[in-house]
Amino acid sequence: MGKKKSGEEKVYTTGNKKWLVILGVLVFLVIAVVIILMVIPANTSGMIETLQTTADTSFLKNQDERDKYEDFQNKIKNNSIVKYYSEEMSDIIIISDTLSDVMVYYNDFIAFADQNNVMKDNYKGIDESLKNAQENQKNLNNILTEIARLTETAASYLQNAMIDLRTEYYNWLNNYQQALERLSKCYEGCFKESVTSNLASTTILNTINDYVDVIKDEFKVIVSSDVKSNLSSSNYNYKSHNTVLYFESFVDNYISNKSEIRNYTFDKTIQEKYEKISKFFELYEENNFYEVLASISSSSDGVISKVYSGVNDKEGLYNTVKDFLDCRG
Amino acid sequence: MKRKNLIISLLTAILITSSMVLFACGDIGTAKDTFQAFQSTMQTYKENTNLFSHSTISEINMETDFYLNNFFVKNNDGLNSEDFYQYYILTATGLNFIDKYYVLIENLKGSYNYTTLMNDIDEMNVSYEELKIENLNVANIEDTAENEIYNGYFARYKLYTKEFINKVYQTAIDLGEFLINNVKYTENLATDLQTDEEVKFYIDHQFLLIYNDFRLTLLQSCKGQDLSGNSIYNTSYSYLKFIATEQVKQLKTFTPENMKDVVYVFSAINNQRDIFYKAIDNFSIYDYLNTYEGSIDAYVNVNSNADVYYNQIYNYYCNTNSIILLTHHYIRENIVVSE
Questions:
Q1: Would an 8 Å CB–CB cutoff place A258 in contact with chain B?
Q2: How far is CA A185 from CA A130, A191, B263, in A?
Q3: Upper half-sphere CA count for residue B31 (Cβ side, 13 Å)
Q4: How far apart are CA A272 and CA A257, in angstroms?
Q5: A149 to each of A89, A136, A143, A229, B40, how far by Cα in Å?
Q6: Average pLDDT, integer, range B46-75
Q7: Cβ–Cβ of B274/A112 closer than 8 Å?
Q8: Residue B316 to chain A, least CA–CA distance (Å)
Q9: What part of B 228-247 touches A (C-beta under 8 Å)?
Q10: What pLDDT, on a 0 to 100 scale, did the predictor assign at position A25?
Q11: Does residue A149 sit in the same domain as residue A33?
């Protein structure tokens, strides 16, 4: 509170000074906290350990787990009423094996990533998603163990077991998809442009994310439509088989065999090819890419009859993808 | 009283800060002193004809003033085994680089901090003095001692050579970084102002960095031992010779446009090298084979990322289209004139 002396200037009292000091301390604390948060590196060791465990023990990688799954698969195949699940069951093996290869790829690199803001924004999310996936995997294993224990082969039992398995598998896939999205952001943002981290690898990893997204969404439809105790196959409309095969082939070509990603830096023509497909994704969105792949392979004369979401120029879309495939060989 | 305390505090702060600044700047050296230190060192090494001779490393046709003498073991069959090419090549390439490019320091104008280079020269010379003694020891008993005695002395000579090579490379790499980062010697590359000398230096520097990868692999991770049962050792040893063979060839002519592509590729390789460094610093191929008997699981029990590091080193050397293979091809196709 100010105190006015006659003819003299107003004197600041202790009260005003106290507020200034408090304000100064608060500003200092805020600056200190911001600096500390910027400087302290992310503690990613837990995430890296989780990723490593995931890469080593992904669903169906363990032989015991695989044996139990194949045992269940045989029961389904041998039952004339529910054998319509056979293709889906085979595709689950393909998806799991393929995603395992992708995780191994990330595992080979993330230990070396820069601990920058991109890593700080994503590593906790990756750890959480992968840990949730590991929980889903435990549940999947419990379901398979129970199926093996009961040795039941009645159609209604097998159908219920399949629905339970698929529901849990969808959750596993969902968690993997969330982890993969963040992992690809880290891959793009935590490495300088190098022989193995460049536009080609970013394009490939983004394409993988979109494949997983599409497959996951199709599983979601099946989860909601395939109802227990209704054995009619008319409720069941599984249509992901071709997409799964394309996904497997894509990962085999670009992830398991990494030679093309490495060549990108050294070979100018391949650089141009990947710049082209990257522009394609910007224009047409990635989910149209795999749809065109599917239509190119199923169409004998290259005529596209599908409607692509948000795309006005179907021919341009087809030609760009065809060009990319021709360059790739 | 309050004002007096304030003035004393300020003066003390200024005094402390000034002292710290002066201490940090320290004795930064001069171009003349550093040049003379390099010159004297290189002259000394060349004059020591017991340790070094002017010769050609036959496997790679590389001429050098720094060919290691008396560098062989005596076998029971009476023949001398001289197959230590990583030692010959790394000694020669490291010292060749220093010998060629220290001269750029002589006429430098401006203020640069030469402390690191001077320290490097001192450490290299300390190691040289030790190596000199070991070389004389083997030379003195070469004709008279029994194989076992001679080979014992040779083992020491080899060990001190390994340490010397490490110091040589520390000096060579610091010299390269000094010229690039401090002197900005390559700042005109890929522009109309680029000179042939800049191009030659840039490419020689890239070769040096590649040789350094081999040094880290063969001398650090393999501890300088012959681990010819291991694919990484075998491949890296072979590639050291392949790539050194390229350096002796004539360079292509590079326009500024060409150099843009060359710089792009080598920048990508150098960025990849950061990953390789981390892997090679944290994975001992020697320990993997000896302590852990070739079991990566056993190594992982001690170092949880051992398999990840191993994969990276393997990717660098041994995979189909490994990075070192692609680098070798790139150099052969784009950098040197083919014979």
A1: yes
A2: 16, 10, 26
A3: 14
A4: 20
A5: 20, 20, 10, 21, 83
A6: 92
A7: yes
A8: 10
A9: none
A10: 83
A11: no
Between A206 and A159, whose confidence is greater?
Answer: A159
Q: What is the pLDDT of residue A2?
A: 43
Q: How far is A113 from chain B (nearest CA, A)?
A: 8
Residues A150 and A255 in one domain: yes
Q: Are residues A195 and B274, on separate chains, in Cβ contact within 8 Å?
A: no
Q: What is the mean pLDDT of residues B136-161?
A: 90
Same domain for A121 and A35: no
Query: Do A48 and A190 lie in a common domain?
Result: yes
Q: Which residue do the tokens 């990635």 mark?
A: A286
Contact A268 B279 (CB under 8 A): no
A192 interfacial to chain B (CB closer than 8 Å): yes
Report the domain count for chain A.
3
Mean pLDDT of A217-241: 84
By CB atoms closer than 10 A (0-12, 13-18, 19+), residue B61 is: exposed
Residues A220 and A117 in one domain: yes
Q: Cα–Cα distance between A72 and A61 in angstroms, integer?
A: 16
On whether any CB of chain B is under 8 Å from the CB of A195, the answer is yes
In A, which residues are within 8 Å of B272 by CB distance?
194-196
Considering only the beta carbons, identify the residue of B267, B274, B320 that sits closest to A259.
Answer: B320
Domain ranges (residues) in chain B: 30-335
* Percent of chain A at pLDDT exceeding 70: 82
Answer yes or no: is pLDDT of B166 > 70.
yes
Q: Are B166 and B219 in contact (CB under 8 A)?
A: yes
Closest chain A C-alpha to B74 CA, distance in angstroms: 43
ipTM: 0.83
Residues, chain B: 339
Pairing of strands B73-74, B80-81: antiparallel
Contact A195 B269 (CB under 8 A): yes
Average of pLDDT values for A66-80?
94
* pLDDT tens figures, A188-199: 999 999 999 998
- A250 and A299 co-located in one domain: no
Kindly tell me if the per-residue pLDDT of B90 is higher than 70.
yes
pLDDT in tens, B284-308: 999 999 999 999 999 999 998 999 9
Residue B52, classed as helix, strand or coil, is: strand
Residue ranges making up the domain that contains A277? 267-329
From chain B, the residues in CB contact with A262 under 8 A are: 321, 323, 326
- Closest CA–CA distance from residue A239 to any residue of chain B (Å): 36
Give yes or no: residues A176 and A31 share one domain: no
CA–CA min distance B134, chain A (Å): 40
- Asked whether residue A217 falls in the same domain as residue A315, the answer is no
